[in-house]
Amino acid sequence: MEIHPLLFIASPSYIQEKKIDEIEEESTSIYVRPIPEKIENSLVARQLNYFAKPVKEPRMLLFILQSGERIHASIDKINGSQVLLNCFQTKRWIHANEIVMIHHTV
Q1: Which top-rank group of organisms is this from (predicted)?
Q2: What whole-number distance in Å separates Cα of residue 67 and Cα of residue 69?
Q3: Which of 16-20, 24-28, 34-38, 76-80 has the largest mean confidence?
């Protein structure tokens, strides 16, 4: 007893040949992922993460820097250890490790 397939479709076989000129070259470049700089003060890091969360109205904060400078601003975004502040009509980048204290102003 012979077993035949239930459905047989006669079609030409498909073979794709690569020409010698079209050989793909292998990439030898190495990507090194940059290590993000860590925020040294863990309290400031927690405060930045908390105050950076979106709310209906931006929170006005008082940032006290190591130089003694006081900045009244809200956090626009955080990129690693860089913080973009909204200082009324201007935006300013500061380094998170320069921040000594953050106070919430009312």
Answers
A1: Bacteria
A2: 6
A3: 76-80
- Give the tens place of pLDDT for each residue, 37-57: 888 899 999 999 999 998 888
Residues 6+ apart with CB under 8 A from 100: 41, 44, 64, 65, 66
Taking alpha carbons only, the member of 10, 13, 83 closest to residue 41 is 83
Whole-model pTM over 0.70? no
CB 84 within 8 A of CB 77: yes
Go through the domains of the chain in sequence order and give each one's CATH number: 42-104 (2.30.30.100)
Gyration radius of the chain's alpha carbons: 30
